[in-house]
From TrEMBL:
Signal peptide: none
Naturally occurring in which organism (per UniProt): Nonomuraea marmarensis
Protein name, per record: Aldo/keto reductase
Alphabetized InterPro entries for the sequence: AKR2_Oxidoreductase, NAD(P)_OxRdtase_dom_sf, NADP_OxRdtase_dom
Domain of life: Bacteria
Pfam families xref list: Aldo_ket_red (PF00248)
Domain NADP-dependent oxidoreductase residue range list: 48-288
Annotated Gene3D superfamilies: NADP-dependent oxidoreductase domain (3.20.20.100)
Length: 314
């Protein structure tokens, strides 16, 4: 266990994100093979609970959800209460800003709609609290950007100050660093959740600045929506993993855990086997030679985010 920045919240190096488990469709590669044809609410709840049980047994104590992750908050809340887990024994972070509109359909025209307004913050915070109650430990803006203006919206900032729990933001897009630096400047936020992986390294210096300023750093998309797993791993990563008797996803997550600013890294596992593979990362050594060898994987931010934006909901 470790403290997450200045929040006073205790987390484990690897946490669980339920983006891929709370709704039938998502932008993870290989999802058809992972989930099969049965993506009913009952099937997805059972799958979520199986992953959560395995995570708890492995010692994981940080759980990440969002209002837009379909029924993720509901699944997590039900599991926490069914397993009689005391609120203080885990740390739960959720996010507001997107609304899930997919109606549990694979072929929905739109799966989520973004609105970073004070009104939506109030509504969604009430909804999150209705489900998670005193388990809710951290509330974050979902996919904040400098372009959205949310970090200059005094109504939103006032509502966040009044939330009564630690608050943070998640970032997205090629200008993540600008968003992180603006958040540091405001002095309001306790955490930042950002994308960093072997393909997308550009936010690293800004995350180091956030860490130095006392913010807890949560890293998402550590395997780049499946691009850094065994199915589609770039040759350099696949070879390095094979030489060490590891899976590419574990090595990719180990790269994140090696960063001195990383507080908790999210596993987006959709199965117990994937979770166990991800958790191996906590026991892998990382060195300068390996880092230099895999630096070639880094993509230009515009290229990385354009590729991510082209991924289909599966």
């Amino acid at each position: 266990m470790r403290l997450l920045g200045r929040t006073g919240l205790r987390v484990t190096p690897v946490g669980i994100g339920l983006a891929a488990l709370g709704r039938p469709a998502y932008i993870t590669l290989g999802r058809e093979e992972d989930l099969g044809g049965d993506r009913s609410v009952a099937a997805m709840r059972a799958r979520s609970w199986a992953v959560l049980d395995a995570a708890r047994a492995a010692g994981v104590r940080y759980f990440d959800v969002a209002r837009s992750y379909g029924r993720a908050e509901e699944f997590l809340a039900g599991w926490l209460r069914e397993r009689a887990i005391p609120p203080g024994a885990v740390t739960v972070g959720s996010k507001w800003g997107y609304a899930y509109v997919g109606d549990w359909r694979m072929d929905a025209d739109r799966h989520e709609v973004k609105e970073l307004s004070a009104g939506r913050l109030r509504r969604q915070l009430d909804e999150s609290r209705a489900l998670l109650g005193e388990y809710l430990s951290l509330y974050q803006i979902h996919s904040a950007t400098v372009e959205s203006g949310v970090l200059d919206d005094e109504d939103v900032l006032t509502e966040l100050r009044a939330a009564g729990i630690p608050v943070g933001l998640s970032t997205t897009g090629p200008r993540q660093a600008d968003t992180i630096d603006r958040a540091i400047e405001l002095g309001l936020f306790d955490t930042v959740q950002a994308t960093w992986n072997l393909l997308a390294r550009s936010a690293g210096p800004a995350l180091a600045r956030a860490h130095e300023a006392g913010l807890g750093v949560i890293v998402k998309e550590g395997v780049a929506n499946g691009r850094l797993t065994a199915r589609t791993a770039p040759p350099a990563l696949a070879t390095a993993a094979r030489e060490r008797g590891l899976t590419p996803d574990a090595l990719a997550l180990a790269a994140i855990l090696a960063q001195p600013w990383a507080g908790v890294v999210l596993s987006g596992a959709a199965s117990v086997d994937q979770l166990h593979s991800n958790l191996t990362a906590a026991h892998i050594g990382w060195d300068e030679e390996l880092d230099e060898r895999l630096t070639v994987l880094a993509e230009d931010p515009q290229t990385y985010w354009a590729t991510r934006g082209s991924l289909k909901w599966q």
